[in-house]
Amino acid sequence: MELRLFIVACIMYAFTLITRKISKMEHFKNPIIFGLWHFVFLLLILSCALFIFLFVMGGGAGGLFPFDKFLIGEVIVLGVAIYGFIAMQKADAAKQEKTLKSDLDWSNTVYFAGFVASIVMFFFLQAFKIPSASMRNTLMEGDHLFVNKAAYGLHIPFTDKYIKAKDVKVGDIIVFKFPARDRKQLNCGGQTQYGRDFVKRVVALPGDKVEIKDGHLWVNDEAVPQQPYELYTDKFRVTDIENDDPKLYQKLWQEHKLDSYIGSELKDVFGPVTVPSNNYFVMGDNRDNSCDSRFWGPVPRKNIRGKAWFIHWPIKKIGFIK
């Protein structure tokens, strides 16, 4: 989202600079040129608003926009822009001057707000909407929350590096970019998750040995005590899956391809695997209905957006996330 806001801010900043230059050259005295420029302004600012609106309504999870909604929105935007062009053909000089001032004011407001918001969201805070039931009952579908992006350190822009502040701990609920390596990679029931943001709980750290036996977590050959937030719904369990080649098993898991070979049984019987350096093993609290590290592998440190921090909607759930 922060990159989208930054792009919007850059577009509106460029529009403002060009508008001021053309205005000084007095080209706007021509009604057709002024009308076309107002058309471009409406097209840009309304398209940017639609762009952000669809992203937010889609949950901010990094997925593609619904094409039908985007198309309908753009048709409306185009209609408004055409109306603005026609209206400016009939406007007198005073009306044109007032419209130009309004266009510039809006452009200045949008690019300034966009730059500030993108900086805040890139380094400190990001809004996120829970897209699925995998974190029930800790986080429910539709919950809106803030992600603390500075919880583990500051990300250096346009790199995979960061200035470390705190270590990721077992029990932390994190938001991260799905670790797929290409757009065509299929996970979670044959779906592409590339570029999406996920939210899960960290259950194992780099170097830990992880297994799932009868649906329950084991770390470093010890059963992890069941926590109050864990939810189990399945009555029947797969009790055994052949693992004749541990090295291949580990390799497929680290390459995020294991679920393509084994499938849904991984929720009951998994591993053992060793979490690689600078990677983490994450699971959903709704253990029987979560597509997580059991299926698609470890989460690299560079993919972590931040720590789930505060629920701000619905009102009855407002509070810090534990």
Structural notes for this entry:
- By secondary structure, the chain is an alpha+beta fold.
- The chain has two domains: 2-123; 168-307, Umud Fragment, subunit A (Ribbon).
- Helices cover 38% and strands 21% of the residues.
- It has helices at 2-24, 31-57, 67-89, 93-123, 246-254, 258-261, 293-296, and strands at 125-129, 144-148, 153-155, 162-164, 173-177, 186-187, 191-192, 197-204, 209-213, 216-219, 222-223, 270-274, 279-283, 299-300, 304-313, 319-320.
- The strands form four sheets. Strands 1, 2, 5, 8, 13, 14, 15 and 16 form an eight-stranded antiparallel beta sheet that branches. A four-stranded antiparallel beta sheet has the order 11-10-9-12.
- It is elongated and about 80 Å long.
List keywords for this structure.
alpha+beta; Umud Fragment, subunit A; 4-stranded antiparallel beta sheet; 7 helices; elongated
Residues in β-strands, percent = 15-25%
Overall mean pLDDT stands at 88
How many DSSP H or I helices?
A: 7
Would you state the CATH class of the largest domain?
A: Mainly Beta
What ranges have pLDDT less than 50 throughout 5 or more consecutive residues?
Answer: none
Annotation, overall tally of beta strands: 16
> Looking at the structure, what is the overall shape?
elongated
Class based on secondary structure composition and strand pairing:
alpha+beta
CATH superfamily of the largest domain: Umud Fragment, subunit A
Quote the distance from N terminus to C terminus. Answer: 25 Å
User: Major sheet: size, sense and barrel closure?
Assistant: 8 strands, antiparallel
Which value, in Å, is the CA radius of gyration?
25 Å
Number of structural domains: 2
CATH architecture of the largest domain: Ribbon
Helix proportion range: 25-40%
| SSE topology string | HHHHEEEEEEEEEEEHHEEHEEE
CATH topology of the largest domain: Umud Fragment, subunit A
